[in-house]
Amino acid sequence: MTAMAPADALLALVEDDRRRKCDAIDAEARAQAAAIRREAHATARDRVRAAFAEERARRAARLAAARANLETRRRAAANAFAAAQLAAGLARLPQGLAARWRDDAARRTWIDAALREAAAALPAGAWRVAHAPGWPRDERDALAGRLAARGTRVTFDEVDALVAGLKVAAQGNVVDATRDGLGADRDETGALLLRALETA
Questions:
Q1: CA angle at residue 28 from 23 to 32, to 5 degrees?
Q2: What is the tens place of the pLDDT at every residue in 89-106?
Q3: What's phi and psi for 177, nearest 5 deg?
Q4: Quick one: how far is CA 191 from the chain centroid?
Q5: Residue 2, Cα to own-chain centre: how many angstroms?
Q6: Residue 134 burial by CB count (10 A; 0-12/13-18/19+): exposed, middle or buried?
Q7: Is 101 exposed, middle or buried (0-12, 13-18, 19+ CB in 10 A)?
Q8: Model pTM greater than 0.85?
Q9: 114: closest CA among 135, 93, 99?
């Protein structure tokens, strides 16, 4: 063995120790780098998920706002259409009622409805019936006979200004089933007209 052999052996030992320590440091550094990468990937995935969730929430909010806006516009359009129909119907109501008064069957239905209301609202006894022109005398006489059988005397007055319909008065109370009386409560008439339009 030469004098250099122990020195070479010592150098080899130091070199092995350095390599082991370097390998350990390298392994630890790689492990830490892998952990950092995993954590970074997890953080990035969480951020992407959060960004997607935010975007979905924004999209859902925009869609809900658009649907609400559309529904508001639909309601506004439906209300405008109903208002236009109502205005047209109310404008045509006077002529329509006048035409019904001239039609025999429609007039009889009108008179029957008015007299049912009068019978419910007015006391029996003496009734005064103001009516529009066009109500035949035989129909009035038949009605007077029916009312007399129930204990009510009736006096008829034809009034040109009424145009269509009749008013029944007794003891200061009046049931107004004239054209103007039927159209006087525009809210109720409008509600009835809208209901009729909806069912039609």
A1: 145
A2: 778 888 888 888 899 999
A3: -115, 35
A4: 16
A5: 108
A6: middle
A7: buried
A8: no
A9: 135
Q: What is the DSSP string of the chain?
A: --THHHHHHHHHHHHHHHHHHHHHHHHHHHHHHHHHHHHHHHHHHHHHHHHHHHHHHHHHHHHHHHHHHHHHHHHHHHHHHHHHHHHHHHHHHHHHHHHHHHSHHHHHHHHHHHHHHHHHHS-SSEEEEEE-TT--HHHHHHHHHHHHHTT-EEEEEE-GGG-SEEEEEETTEEEEEEHHHHHH-HHHHHHHHHHHHHH-
Sequence letter at residue 14: V
Domain ranges of the chain: 104-199
- Tokens representing 160 are 């040109």
Burial 155-179 (b: 16+ CB within 10 A, else e): ebeeeeebbbbbbbbbeeeebbbbb
Residues of the chain with pLDDT under 70: 1-4, 185, 200
